[in-house]
Write a structure and sequence with these properties.
It is built from 16 helices and 10 strands. By secondary structure, the chain is α/β, with parallel strands linked by helices.
């Protein structure tokens, strides 16, 4: 790294060019680079220190386990092939040939087909891509739904979801310019199908874009997809599932049917139109990414309408994706998680998080019943309870919310039991709760 003296003496022409037209404030910025570099080094040291505390993160749905050595070996293979050493770009539809050969569309297609099979999509009728995040996947699902419904009816749909849905759904509603119909919830926080039926009847002149949540953000409730579909009979509708967290682990459990595309009683019947699942939550992928999966027939209908407005001859096909350039490294790296060995590990993690959730609930009910610990269903890895001390909230990065339960407003926190939250971590958490209760006496 150049010192300030070396930098100033390096090139008269260079420094003149760097400071030409600069205000004194800009010059001061240049002269303070040593101080900035020192601060960055301190920041890196601090990040290395807090890395040791990563397993104490209990309030948010992030798998803090470091991926296996096999994953990093795969990453090295990708580097050896040149991926992530110069610019790769997954522009356009991964199921179409690209004019740019430096892409990982082949990995992306295989990921979608493999996970599409897990979610019960027909192999010959599956389409999707790897997005930058769960929100990105939800955006595409809602945009696809809006486009298809308006194309079918000539009328902009209204968006139906609950206030328990992730806050990003409301942001996306604003971006898409949709009017919202808020659907009431059942006591567990899931969408009330009877209220949905009533709200649909109140809005007969608009098609319905329904966003159902499989694992609500704070309580872990599950919107009942089959009952929602019953309410939608007779209406022009599109049903998108936000299954960011639960969509990761439920396929590896006896509750896989909650996120399966085809109806068990009638395989010809679709339970929903598209699904979004986060890669960085349950799977433990080291950076934000998301799966977006729908049917090829849905995509073709959408893309036909999309192409009437957007026809990018520049890339030789209609991409059918909102984003143009897309990250090509993430699909190549996430491909590892679709391998048989990774799938075996995901199945183990699914079993352990549900077992540890039961353990935590039983222990909290036995020793900290005054916190009113609650798990709303047997599929959830989320337990919410009365907010403990600020010290505990900070140590375990607990999410908190002000909720009205049984007609009383209280501050609540929750623990999301992810694969890194083993018995040792949960025991430490409860020991702190115990100290907290003693301190309150």
């Amino acid at each position: 790294m150049l010192t300030r003296r070396q930098f100033l003496g390096y090139s008269g022409a260079g420094i003149l060019a760097a400071t030409a037209g600069c205000s004194p404030q800009n010059i001061n910025w240049l002269l303070n680079q040593e101080e900035a570099s020192s601060n960055i080094n301190l920041s890196l040291a601090d990040k290395a220190r807090i890395r040791k505390q990563k397993n104490l993160l209990l309030g948010y749905p992030i798998n803090m386990n470091t991926p296996s050595e096999d994953f990093f070996a795969w990453r090295q293979q990708l580097l050896d092939a040149g991926i992530n050493t110069f610019s790769y770009n997954n522009v356009g539809n991964p199921f179409k040939d690209s004019t740019i050969p430096f892409n990982t569309h082949d990995f992306e297609r295989e990921i979608i087909l493999r996970f599409g099979k897990i979610y019960g999509f027909p192999p010959a009728n599956t389409w999707g891509f790897l997005s930058n995040s769960g929100t990105d996947s939800n955006m595409h699902g809602m945009y696809m739904g809006r486009t298809v419904l308006k194309g079918r009816t000539g009328v902009l749909p209204k968006a139906y979801f609950t206030k328990e849905a992730h806050y990003s759904i409301q942001i996306l509603r604003d971006l898409l310019g949709l009017e919202t119909v808020f659907v009431e919830t059942l006591p567990d926080g899931g969408m009330d199908p009877n209220d949905l039926r009533q709200k649909l009847a109140d809005n007969p002149s608009h098609p319905a874009l329904v966003v159902a949540t499989i694992g609500t953000t704070f309580k872990g409730a599950i919107d009942q997809v089959d009952r929602i579909q019953e309410a939608l009979k007779g209406y022009t509708s599109y049903l998108h599932l936000d299954a960011a967290l639960f969509g990761g682990y439920l396929p590896f459990t006896s509750h896989a049917g909650e996120v399966t595309y085809q109806s068990k009683s009638n395989p010809a019947l679709a339970r929903y139109d598209s699904i979004a699942v986060s890669c960085h939550k349950f799977f433990g992928f080291p950076s934000p990414a998301g799966l977006f999966i729908t049917t090829k027939s849905n995509f073709d209908e959408f893309n036909g309408l999309f192409s009437q407005i957007h026809n990018p001859e520049y890339i030789h096909h209609v991409p059918g994706t909102i984003t143009c350039s897309r990250d090509a490294v993430k699909p190549a790296e996430f491909y590892f998680f679709s391998s048989p060995s990774a799938m075996d590990k995901l199945a183990e993690d699914s079993k352990s998080i549900l077992q540890n959730t039961v353990y935590l609930l039983e222990q909290m009910q036995a020793h900290f019943s005054y916190l009113q610990p609650t798990r709303v269903n047997d599929l959830s890895n989320t337990i919410f309870f009365r907010k403990p001390s600020d010290r505990i909230v900070k140590k375990y990065s607990l999410a908190t919310m002000h909720l009205e339960i049984n007609h009383q407003k209280q501050d609540y926190a929750h623990v999301v039991v992810m694969p890194h939250a083993d018995r040792q971590v949960l025991t430490e958490f409860m020991n702190d709760l115990d100290k907290d209760s003693v301190a309150r006496l």
